[in-house]
């Protein structure tokens, strides 16, 4: 049980680090604000998915290590380590790098997505002047037939600007945050 978890841990983490670096570069550099905000939204979703996989893999590994009374309770980086011969510097370094990659990505994508103001699908003026107020306005107005709203202005090149669906668009983010927090809670509960 521990080796498949360690391999999943390594694969997901090592795949995410270069992906996140490239995606952050593209989200911070570009000309169409609406497209960049949309890419940031998808960056937040992907980062939270990766964070959930990593935290739950870590939780299951910690549980398995505790049950086997292992002295090392964090997964090895299977690229450089084996279960029988561990290097704690590599294991802890991997944990720190993966954790920092998720935190930095969430910060970079979250800051850009935080610039989002909900617009009517083909309107250049936001529903309200702030992130939360524009979402409250979209929820209040409702939508009978998609697409009604966009996460930003679709002026200029409207290709690539994500649709805003009340309760769904930010609902995915809230669900994934809860999933990550739940995994962290499980890890903390294993410490006792």
Give the helix/strand class: mainly alpha
N→C terminal distance: 22 Å
As a percent range, the share of strand residues is: under 5%
Nearest-integer average pLDDT: 91
Task: Give Rg in angstroms.
Answer: 20 Å
Can you tell me the residue ranges where pLDDT is under 50 for at least 5 consecutive residues?
none
Amount of helix: 55-70%
Sketch the major β-sheet: 3 strands, antiparallel
Cα shape? elongated
Order of strands, main sheet, comes to 1-2-3
**In sequence order, what are the helices and strands, one letter per element?**
HHHEHEEH
Number of strands: 3
Helical element count?
5
Can you describe what's shown?
The protein is mainly α. It is 63% helix and 3% strand. The chain has helices spanning 2-28, 33-67, 88-113, 131-141, 169-190; strands at residues 119-120, 149-150, 163-164. It has a three-stranded antiparallel beta sheet with strand order 1-2-3, with no helix packed on it. α2 (33-67) runs antiparallel to α3 (88-113) and α2 (33-67) runs parallel beside α5. The longest helix has 35 residues, at 33-67.
